[in-house]
Amino acid sequence: MRHKHSDYMHWSKTQSRARFNLATSGVAPFPLRDLPTKLKELEINGDDSYGYAPLQQAIAEHHGVAPECVVESAGTSMANHLAMAAIIEPGNEVLIEYPAYGPILDVAHYLQANIKRFRRVEENGWAIDPAEVRQCVTPKTRLIVITNLHNPTSALTSESVLREIGDIARSIGALVLVDEVYLDAVYDRTPRTSFHLGSQFVVTSSLTKVYGVSGLRCGWTLAQPELAWKMKRLNDLYSATAVYPGELLSVAAFQHLNLLRDRARRIVDADRKLLRGFLAQQPAISAVWTDWGTTSFVKLRDGNADIFLERLRSDFDTSAVPGRFFEMPDHFRIGMGVNTEMFAEGLNRIERVLASAPGLDNSLIRGIGN
Ligand SMILES: Cc1ncc(COP(=O)(O)O)c(C=O)c1O
Q1: 219 CB less than 6 Å from ligand 1?
Q2: Is the pTM of this model over 0.90?
């Protein structure tokens, strides 16, 4: 049976919520009333057959690329799907980072790719080691897939490492897919998109995570015009055209992008400060520190994160993402940028579970029989 689901997405939609919700990856919702736009100017139908020209233009300008390289899509999710589906044939070798955001693997499985992995190692700050990538590719590798920032760790890959990966890909005729949905959460000296690094780069992104307008589902891919066109033709099989009012509102969001981003930044910065202090005081957990990103990947030094998180949720109404969704069951992911009071109380409750563990019932967190 072909793989046709995402366990992570299902969990996220049905089980991730709690009163103190640290299972997020995007920032607080930006309300429509605060977007300087006139609702009277909204329209239901319009001309958007292979993309709405003003939105294509806005995305192109945001990245400094030509509009014919832009493919609109429903979020980065659909962008990743369209990009991989346009590039991969069943049986093609695809090299994906480990740990990885689950749905990227799910799509590759769904497309019947021959999946290979290269490791990011915690002791190395979760960085990509180009030597490791070089070792893992073969002449059959068609695509290398990475996230930058990395989900779940928020590790940033430098331009020089990206260039090395690009060189490796080019030497075997492969492409590099870089999911940059979190990249704009590097608030100072935001790196430019890796699409500028060479024609072997294909980039996906959206306004969903860093800008607080996930409901618009404004996502896109940057690809060379021929591949971009292939993706647009492929999208005819999926959603045909986009939601026109969503495209109009997305253009309005692009016109006020700094407003959206700065509002979120204040919350992300405040939460990050709290997290830093918190981690310094908790010997039972640790995380590779980054000064950017909306998520942090926390290691539970001695225990099973699933059991820990179950207790956190059932007794303390607090959620975080189990590391098993990133193939790392002794970790969990914490999200920043929604509400600092909620974040502080969520951390407080994590501390209470950690504090209660050794004395109360260590086996609960260790996992009986684990
Ligand atoms: C790395 C990565 N790519 C894509 C997505 C999906 O983003 P979107 O909401 O834009 O579809 C997520 C969501 O968590 C993500 O973490």
Answers
A1: yes
A2: yes
